[in-house]
Specification:
The complex is a heterodimer of chains A (about 110) and B (about 120).
Chain A lengths: L3 E4 L2 E4 L5 E7 L12 E6 L6 E5 L3 E2 L7 E6 L2 E6 L8 E7 L6 E2 L3 E5 L1
Chain B lengths: L2 E5 L3 E2 L5 E8 L9 E7 L6 E7 L4 E3 L7 E6 L4 E6 L8 E7 L4 E2 L3 E5 L2
Parallel strand pairs in B: 2-11
Antiparallel strand pairs in B: 1-3, 3-8, 4-5, 4-9, 5-6, 7-8, 9-10, 9-11
Chain lengths: ~110, ~120
């Protein structure tokens, strides 16, 4: 199985400041088509996860442009450029390079 | 746009089989080369992928659950289903159906395993 490890486990950031969440995979999720099979999700309490980013850096339609994804191979980053109150949530990375599909353990983002 | 809705019993007795159905609306379950997945999340914990089925009926399961899981497709009803046998309290969770390819998840249904 590909193990996805996120850091930190929790993060407190002031409103308007930048938030950065890291995700490391135990093996590369870069396929021969030059696509990284890596997605980011946001989950708020009582709701299903909401897709933010796929192919490591492609923003899903309707997702604010303050959310961005970067990285390749085994190391990835989700950045929120200017934290808003509605961004308080748990964030998960996911690899879909191979089965079993696996998720990171989650990063809880709070307001400082 | 495609929407998903889970349904099934909220309470299952230990050693019995958990059965859930996901109904797809706003599109055909058999169009395109889609994979339809089941995922679960114990209260306060992370996400675990259970398995998936594609539009041809081919399945992939999480090895940690493979011996107990069956996922099937009913194109006539635009549904796919999950069966998890020999359940224990450790199977208590919110169960989601989803299609990662189009970024759609159901709202989830809580299943409790208890006598």
């Amino acid at each position: 199985d590909i193990v996805m490890t996120q850091s930190p486990d929790s993060l407190a950031v002031s409103l308007g400041e930048r938030a950065t969440i890291n995700c490391k995979s135990s093996q590369s999720v870069l396929y021969s088509n030059n696509k990284n099979y890596l997605a980011w999700y946001q989950q708020k309490p009582g709701q299903p996860p909401n897709l933010l980013i796929y192919w490591a850096s492609t923003r899903e339609s309707g997702v604010p442009d303050r959310f961005s994804g970067s990285g390749s191979g085994t190391d990835f980053t989700l950045t929120i450029s200017s934290l808003q109150a509605e961004d308080v949530a748990v964030y998960y990375c996911q690899q879909y390079y191979t089965t079993p599909i696996t998720f990171g353990q989650g990063t809880r983002l709070e307001i400082k | 746009q495609v929407q998903l809705q889970e349904s099934g019993p909220g309470l299952v007795k230990p050693s019995q089989t958990l059965s859930l159905t996901c109904t797809v609306s706003g599109g055909s379950i058999s169009s395109g080369s889609h994979y339809w997945s089941w995922i679960r999340q114990p209260a306060g914990k992370g996400l675990e992928w259970i398995g998936r089925i594609n539009t041809s009926g081919s399945t992939n399961y999480n090895p940690s659950l493979k011996s107990r899981v069956t996922i099937s497709l009913d194109t006539s009803k635009n549904q796919f289903s999950l069966k998890l046998s020999s359940v224990t309290a450790a199977d208590t969770a919110v169960y989601y159906c989803g299609n990662f390819g189009v970024g759609v998840w159901g709202k989830g249904t809580t299943v409790t395993v208890s006598s």
